[in-house]
Specification:
single chain; alpha+beta; Elastase, domain 1; Neutral Protease, domain 2; six-stranded mixed β-sheet; two-stranded antiparallel sheet; 11 helices; 10 strands; 44% helix; 9% strand; globular
């Protein structure tokens, strides 16, 4: 294993779009139709985390010299848990009858296109890694995840969650965990873990904006909009524009994300609050992108990507480390100007020092 492989294999991470604290809440619901699928999902996720640790010790293959075009394969788990499942669509195949398969295929393509077009990155590893996904995973599985090798999507329980391929930013979010794995490989605990989650929210949102042709001002800045069933009192899993406002529901509870360091949550749960405190760097990115205007991937997104992938970010980086490097990266990319000033102002607004 060379140095690059060792970097992305060193820290085992199993990354899900729905945080465990939210599933814990659902598992205690009075309604068995809500509680039972949540408990099943929590048990499945715990098992998969153990499996993920074994996978990352082995490491992953490199695909140097691959053409700069997507290589997608979609599998169907047929509501079982064996991965990857039956192949149902390969690169270049025409759409079939299964809308979930078609959405997964399109979402992988949208993610590949954003990273290649905006950042010059050839797939997740930068070297043309084939993109694999499995749909229809398990019975009433209420999550989607990146296991270090592929994407997996549940169909949801129909009570709280709908099909996890519905929001393209969910697809982009999970695949972006792969980009982080192959670059800074941020430790999945505390502030470095919250940065890991935030990177995926940032790129997931950018993928949705790129696919829809939206400017920063036109975007909704929501992660997972369209994922909740109609009776849930909420618009998405998270809001980058206004962390803490994505949902407020009798069953789900209230969105716990802070927007600034004043409300930073210290907890031993959720790997030290990785899905909670990610609201702080999320909000910083929103502030930068909307201050600069235009297409968010062109300047704000470029700064975030180059900070993540530039080789200077340590795996245990804290918010202040990323903030400092992002300002320096803005200067190196665009010179002393509105980009670096937007960074300085945004990090100040969320209470993260840049020196």
């Amino acid at each position: 294993m060379d140095a690059k492989d060792a970097r992305h294999a060193a820290h085992p991470v199993f990354c899900t779009i729905v945080p465990p604290h939210l599933l814990d809440k659902l598992a205690r619901a009075d309604n068995p139709a809500v509680a039972a699928p949540a408990k099943r999902t929590l048990i499945a996720d715990a098992s998969l985390r153990t499996e993920r640790r074994l996978n990352t010790v082995i490491g992953l293959p490199a695909f140097g010299g691959a053409p700069e075009e997507p290589n997608r394969t979609i599998h169907d788990a047929q509501r079982r848990t064996s991965l990857p499942g039956k192949v149902v669509r390969r690169e270049g195949d025409e759409p079939g009858q299964d809308a979930t398969v078609n959405r997964a295929y399109a979402g992988l393509g949208a993610t590949f296109e954003l990273f290649l077009t905006a950042f010059g990155r050839n797939s997740i590893d930068g070297e043309g890694l084939p993109l694999l996904a499995t749909v229809h995973y398990d019975e009433n599985y209420g999550n989607a995840f990146w296991n270090g090798e592929q994407m997996v999507f549940g169909d949801g329980d129909g009570e709280i969650f709908l099909d996890f391929t519905l929001p393209v930013d969910v697809i982009g979010h999970e695949l972006a965990h792969g980009v982080t794995q192959y670059t800074a490989n941020l430790d999945y605990f505390g502030q470095s873990g919250a940065l890991n989650e935030s990177m995926s929210d940032v790129f997931g949102s950018l993928i949705k904006q790129y696919a829809l042709g939206q400017t920063a001002d036109q975007a909704d800045w929501l992660i997972g909009a369209g994922l909740f069933a109609p009776d849930v009192q909420g618009v998405a899993l998270r809001s980058m524009k206004a962390p803490g406002t994505a949902y407020d529901d009798d069953v789900l509870g209230k969105d716990p994300q802070p927007a600034t360091m004043d409300d930073y949550v210290r907890t031993g749960r959720d790997n030290g609050g990785v899905h909670i405190n990610s609201g702080i760097p999320n909000h910083a990115f929103y502030l930068v992108a909307t201050a600069l205007g235009g297409n968010a991937w062109e300047r704000a997104g470029k700064i975030w990507y180059e900070t993540l992938a530039g080789g200077e970010l340590d795996s245990d980086a804290q918010f202040k480390d990323f903030a400092r490097l992002s300002v320096a990266k803005a200067v190196s990319l665009f010179g002393e100007g509105e980009e670096s000033q937007a960074l300085l102002k945004a990090w100040s607004q969320v209470g993260v020092p840049t020196v």
